[in-house]
Amino acid sequence: MLTTDICVIGAGAGGLSVAAGAAQMGARVVLVEGGEMGGDCLNAGCVPSKALIAAARAAEAQRRGFPGIAPQDPRIDFAAVRDHVAAVIAGIAPMDSQARFEGLGCTVIRAMARFTSPREVAAGGYRIRARRFVLATGSRPVVPEIAGIEATPYLTNETIFALRDRPRHLVILGGGPVGIELAQAHRRLGSEVTVIEAATALGREDPEAAALVLDQLRAEGVRLIEGQAVVRLAGGAEGIEATLADGTGVGGSHLLLATGRRAALEGLGLTEAGIAHTAQGVTVTPGLRTTNRRVYAVGDVTGGPQFTHLAGWQAGIVIRRIVLGLPSRAGPRAIPRVTYTAPELAQVGLTEAEARAVHGERLTVTRAGLAHNDRARTEGLGTGFAKVMVVRGRPVGATIVGPQAGELISLWSLAIAARLKLSAVASTVLPYPTLGEVSKRAAGAYFSPRLFGNPLLRRIVRLIQDRVP
Ligand SMILES: Cc1cc2nc3c(=O)[nH]c(=O)nc-3n(C[C@H](O)[C@H](O)[C@H](O)COP(=O)(O)OP(=O)(O)OC[C@H]3O[C@@H](n4cnc5c(N)ncnc54)[C@H](O)[C@@H]3O)c2cc1C
Ligand SMILES: NC(=O)c1ccc[n+]([C@@H]2O[C@H](COP(=O)([O-])OP(=O)(O)OC[C@H]3O[C@@H](n4cnc5c(N)ncnc54)[C@H](O)[C@@H]3O)[C@@H](O)[C@H]2O)c1
């Protein structure tokens, strides 16, 4: 029997942040992890996907060349790319390791946890009683119910990064961020790629920005089928065959399921613990408390948007509440999201359509294109734009599509979270020449109609000028 202040279940992005913060502030922490330390983001999500995308970008740069630099077909050693992915994970792993967390003072148990009562958890032969529990068990890939799927070999994000042989033809079900990022990466690394999306690819994103990304994927040779459900799957060692609703067959060598992710709730004994939940996730209050007042939840298991930075931010809320005893609520904040394609697509706050639905006539959309950005020109980059949704002089959302959009969105995350006025961005001095100037230009475009061609201002300027000796 272990008794402790806090028992954290799941050592991924959310759980590790809670455990590290709580232990370093002096709380006694038991951390229970049933799989790999670091969870999905480190082992099967953000880190391997971005490492693969970096290799794909290097291959594409060779393929394209540069004015004066001859393009060439990249010679791709897929197994070595896979080694790079593994090396990046190994490089980050010590930060998330059992040894580091034991060094911080946590008791780490490597086993699956299960509530046996509202105040007790069993894991690996231990019984753990804690003042507070934090559920951070993340999410698992959804396996859609399609006829024949049980007899068809398939990959998910949990297995695809282990492939050492390049898939000859990767068929991807699902055109969300997982499907689209991995489609472009594999295409650039030399695979044939077909994406089958039942609805609209990147359907949560601003359609104009998503179109730029999807056009680029098509231009690079990704076959994109939208608005078509797969009704039957078949396959064996030689490959797979998907049959679409209209009867068309799509064949490939490998199948990747990227059809969404669902909260990992199985085997947790939630009912025994009095923790209400739906298939989407654990039910939580704005302060992230479950229906069992001893138990909090953070990250993907709460059924909200699935991002590492959101899990980390929620961890901060829970630490304030259960370690420091301070009130804190996970109220509406500007949570950014980025799809790491080329071009990147970044969003924070409301999209244009969302802002119009909420604010109607009060909304002004201001924008600037990368075509007029000098740094984009010197780099040979050009497509993309920033658009900012403005209500009463303050930004309520920003969409950026283009190179490094994921870096550029930070300014708008700050502006929206701190409720800055748009004039604060327009009057900030930014270094020249940088891609970031696109944000300032978009902010400036909001004011230029008020300054340039304004008849009242023109009359005032005339009066001033006529008085100047
Ligand atoms: C391919 C891919 C790419 C992604 N890229 C990005 C990105 O670029 N940026 C971004 O912000 N997000 C990205 N995400 C999402 C991100 O990975 C998740 O939002 C994040 O990992 C959620 O953290 P978490 O702590 O909730 O869960 P996880 O990190 O999944 O951690 C949960 C942990 O709990 C453990 N666990 C589960 N059940 C039990 C149990 N009963 N007992 C003990 N332990 C248990 C699991 O083994 C796991 O280690 C990506 C996801 C995928 C799949
Ligand atoms: N860059 C990032 O931040 C990043 C990258 C990858 C994943 N993630 C996170 O991981 C989560 C999961 O990503 P995802 O792309 O797997 O899920 P998703 O829910 O975002 O997208 C899944 C897509 O699959 C489609 N779909 C569902 N069933 C289908 C079927 N049977 N056939 C064809 N299409 C089908 C849906 O219409 C949807 O467009 C996301 O919510 C995201 O937050 C984030």
TrEMBL record:
InterPro entries: FAD/NAD-bd_sf, FAD/NAD-binding_dom, FAD/NAD-linked_Rdtase_dimer_sf, Pyr_nuc-diS_OxRdtase, Pyr_nucl-diS_OxRdtase_dimer, Pyr_OxRdtase_I_AS. It is an enzyme of class 1 (oxidoreductase). GO terms for molecular function: oxidoreductase activity. Belongs to the class-I pyridine nucleotide-disulfide oxidoreductase family. It comes from Tabrizicola soli. Keywords: Disulfide bond, FAD, Flavoprotein, NADP, Oxidoreductase, Redox-active center. This is Dihydrolipoyl dehydrogenase family protein. It comes from the Bacteria. Its cofactor is FAD. Its EC number is 1.-.-.-. SUPFAM superfamilies: FAD/NAD(P)-binding domain (SSF51905), FAD/NAD-linked reductases, dimerisation (C-terminal) domain (SSF55424). Residues 335-442 form the Pyridine nucleotide-disulphide oxidoreductase dimerisation domain. Residues 5-315 form the FAD/NAD(P)-binding domain. PANTHER family: MERCURIC REDUCTASE (PTHR43014:SF2).
